[in-house]
Amino acid sequence: MKVPQFIHLLGSPPWFYRISGQLMPVLGLLACALLIVAWVWGLGFAPEDAKQGNSYRIIYLHVPTAVIALAGYYVMAFTGLVYLVWRIQLMALMLKSAALIGAAMTFLALFSGAVWGKPTWGTWWVWDARITSMLILFFLYLGVLGIINAFSGSKTSQQAGVKAASILALVGTVNIPIIYKSVDWWFSLHQPATLKLTGKSNIDGSMLTPLLIAIVGCYVFYAFMLLWRTRIELQSSEHNKQWLRDAVSKK
Amino acid sequence: MYFDSIQALLHMDGHGPYVWACYGMGALVFLGLVLSARAQSKRSIEMICASDVNDEDVQ
Q1: Which among A44, A116, A236 has CB closest to B2?
Q2: What is the dihedral of CA A39, A45, A50, A51, to 10 degrees?
Q3: Contacts A207 to B, Cβ<8 Å
Q4: Distance, in angstroms, between B54 CA and closest chain A CA?
Q5: What does the DSSP 8-state code read for residue B13?
Q6: With an 8 Å Cβ cutoff, are A239 and B44 in contact?
Q7: N or C terminus: which one in chain B shows less Cβ crowding within 10 Å?
Q8: CB-CB neighbours of B46 under 10 Å
Q9: pLDDT class of A142 with cuts at 50, 70, 90
Q10: pLDDT at B59
Q11: Cα separation of A156 and A158, whole Å?
Q12: Considering all CA atoms of chain B, what is the largest pairwise distance in Å, rounded to the nearest integer?
């Protein structure tokens, strides 16, 4: 199958190393600024919620990390698909990086959701559709990471591991629409979606602005970490290549 | 600021422990990702430099 130009560029480790090195400082600073503004605003300046009081302020951590947990899964599945179709080695490294960051974001979404549940629902945990499907997402991320780490021997073994992890990542994408729609399809303690792409969001503008900034900040942080971790994997796997030695010695 | 004092911000009408526990864990995870990447990046660059020296030894 003919490789599209964009994918073709991703197949070049020196190109990725150079571009990611240029993008990372910008993304890192931008993520830091956005997240500090959003969280200081959300914690100290946004008004109290009429029903939930101040516990709702957890939304500024819970929603952005949950959004990234879901979007990050698509990124991971896409890298798995590209690896399976075109065997681009860089995609194998990005798959592992996406699994680690995605697992961290899913853990935060689950943790903040559980802590938010106590003052709001009176319980830390309930086995309802949204929460259970998020827990499955967490296990899918861990599964992908576990498979890649388990096949860490010879090059052939590593390739078999990435192939199996890519298949698991692709099969797991069926869980994402289930998570999105779980609060509509089943009776759930979890509230329906606060933010809507179509129609009016169920949140006042004074609370919405810091939430949107936090979501954008988390997306930028995700991009920053994905580039950084993929660079680290690249440094490990290509440590004896001349182009990498040249790139490192230039710094 | 929405709160009258730092105490009120920390207490949040009894919801403070829940809210701050979440953001504490958030800070741990975000910083953990950044610091572990920094440490690994340093190790990888040392490995690249070391393999450079080994190559010279071979030559």
Answers
A1: A44
A2: 20
A3: none
A4: 10
A5: G
A6: yes
A7: C
A8: 11
A9: very high
A10: 36
A11: 5
A12: 71
Adjacent-strand bridge partners of A49: A53
Q: How many Cβ atoms are within 10 Å of B6's Cβ, its own excluded? A: 10
Q: In chain B, which residues touch A (CB < 8 A)?
A: 1-3, 9, 12-16, 18-19, 21-23, 25-26, 29-30, 32-34, 37, 40-41, 44-45, 47-49, 51-52, 55
Contact A135, A152 (CB under 8 A): no
Which residue is associated with the tokens 């709702």?
A: A56
Those residues with Cβ within 8 angstroms of residue B25's Cβ, 6 or more apart along the chain or in another chain = A108, A111, A112
Model confidence at B52, in pLDDT bands (50, 70, 90)?
A: low
Q: Which residues of A touch B13 (CB under 8 A)?
A: 48, 53-54
When pLDDT is cut at 50, 70 and 90, the band that residue B57 belongs to is: very low
> Residue A2 gets which letter from DSSP?
P
Place of tokens 């309802």: A128
Give the residue from A37, A55, A4 showing the smallest Cα distance to B14. A55
Interface contact A61-B22, CB threshold 8 A: yes
Task: Check whether A10 has a pLDDT greater than 90.
Answer: no
Phi and psi at A49, nearest 5°, equal -80, 140
Residue A143's nearest CA partner among A118, A125, A170 is: A170
Is the separation of the CB atoms in A36 and A42 below 8 Å?
no
**pLDDT greater than 90 at residue B7:** yes
Using pLDDT thresholds of 50, 70 and 90, give the confidence band for residue B55: very low
Nearest CA in chain B to A36: B27
Q: Which residues on chain B are in Cβ contact (under 8 Å) with A112?
A: 22, 25-26
Token pair of B33, please?
A: 């990702």
| Spatial contact of A129 and A122, defined as CB atoms under 8 Å apart | no
Mapped onto helix, strand or coil, the DSSP state of residue A204 is coil
Q: Which of A216-225, A230-239, B31-40 has the lowest mean pLDDT?
A: A230-239
